[in-house]
Specification:
By secondary structure, the protein is mainly α. The chain is built from two helices and no strands. The model has no long low-confidence stretch (mean pLDDT 83).
Length: 73
């Protein structure tokens, strides 16, 4: 136990923080999930739904690239 009073202890030690690699892996999972969902849309699916999924996929890929500096798969 730390000798510092509770108010002076860092919150960082109590949090389950992700590494960049762990966060990138989770983003890769979401990218695959979203891409599969987009590919599975019926030809007559609403354009709005297609646009939303494409925007989400783009944002996920950008976030993954920002984490590692490498393009997402």
């Amino acid at each position: 136990m730390s000798r510092r009073p509770e108010s002076e202890r860092s919150d960082w030690t109590d949090l389950g923080l992700l590494t960049r690699e762990e966060a990138h892996g989770r983003l890769q999972d979401k990218i695959a999930e979203t891409a599969a969902r987009l590919a599975g849309l019926a030809a007559d699916a609403e354009q709005t739904e297609r646009d939303l999924l494409e925007a989400r996929l783009s944002a996920l890929r950008e976030a993954a690239e920002d984490l590692t500096g490498k393009p997402a798969d």
